[in-house]
Structure prediction request, 480 residues.
Amino acid sequence: MDEAYRNKWLILAAVSLALFMGTVDGTIVNVALPTMVADFNTNFPTIQWVVLAFLLGLSVLMLSVGRLADMLGKKRIFMIGLVIFTIGSALCGLSPTVYVLIGARLIQSIGAAMLLALGVAIVTETWPSEERGKALGFSAGVISLGIVVGPTAGGLIIAALSWHWIFFVNVPLGVLALLAVWRYVPPLRPKSTEERFDFLGAAVFGIGLLALLLGLTVGQTTGFTKPGILALFAGAAIALVGFVLIERRVRYPMVDLNLFRNLQFSLNLTTGALTFVAIAAVVFLLPFYLELALSLPVAEVGLLMASTPLVLAVLGPLSGSLSDRFGTRPVSVVGLAVLLVGYLVASTMNATTTPMGFIWRMLLIGMGMGIFQSPNNSAIMGAAPRNRLGIASGMLSITRTLGQTAGIALLGALFASMLTHYAGKPVDIGNASPVVIASALHDQFLLVAGLIGIGLVLSLLAWHRERRAARTSTIQPDAA
Prediction:
């Protein structure tokens, strides 16, 4: 094995460690949320921002980081991301109040955006083209592993130490990853410096998203008809219109709006967003249900929460292979159907559900998501023109993070209102009875089942259109 071959594996290992850290931190916190509510003596709408702040940073920066890397160099931005992520992790662990923690999570998300946006790009550029699929498959496996390990590791760490250590463990790992990237990743200097960064578009996008999330979370406690909340929603709508106008006129936009003229691209992106809205809200709420309604210890909660992503990680590569053989649409439709059944079955959980009853219900959701995700991602990338694959990849990433952000904010608001409805008075999740929590979660599952149902109908319509187009293209040459 020559030096170049050894280096590509070392590059992959260094980048994978960074990707693993960024992915784990997106899920490890969920298990700690009930503990944080008690430690900080805070409420449900406030604790949401521990997760939302992280997703907000990812959502705002994911599209921007790629362009900065093209201008300044991928290795440089990636290493800056590792430094910011490591410092942010230390600040999270040292946070004395929930508001300091939210601010530290936002800092942490800036570094995570740089890692998650550029990790796959670095692997693509440093591996030979004939082995690129193997390298990217390994990277995808590491990301899935991070999703699986997050809840389990979080539960075990909190049970043995405290929630502070779910952040402190990133510090030595971050230093190790930084040294490995500095030592083994080549400079990767930018090939072109002609493009300019769309600062105005990035600012308007971020302000609009922040206004929307503030309205959704603050409105849970103040009421959604208050003038201040309505002003936030109006500001978000104005920012969205302004963002579209800016992107249509700027020379180097953050988002290529022409891609949305492809109906198949838009439908696949929309369907994917619906699934991420659904899964994010459910994953966010389940630790509260397990700890507060079922009275399970936090270590057991972490293990139970790993069941869904574990199935997703196993079935993802398999469904991708099946879509290569049978086509992306049939496999993704099957995945959505299984996911719909999974959410409907999960709605039968109540305040007396056993851990085994929880697992077999959530396995159906994991199976559906695992079958659907890989073919849908493949369909999105396949619908994009060859010279727009990078932009399409960025839009796929932003759809994932925006779906998660919107899911937690929108469905979290509904969940809070359902708690009040079933309790018969204003109540926070920490004071709600097990029956009230289970009843509100039941409605949540039915709502997300409705969202998946919409996605299934869209996919079936797209499948019908694709089959009709295929028959037409087959008949026309014969007629000619």
Notes: Residues 199-253 form one domain. Confidence is low (pLDDT under 50) at residues 1-5. The longest helix spans residues 434-479. The chain has three domains: 1-186, 199-253, 258-468.
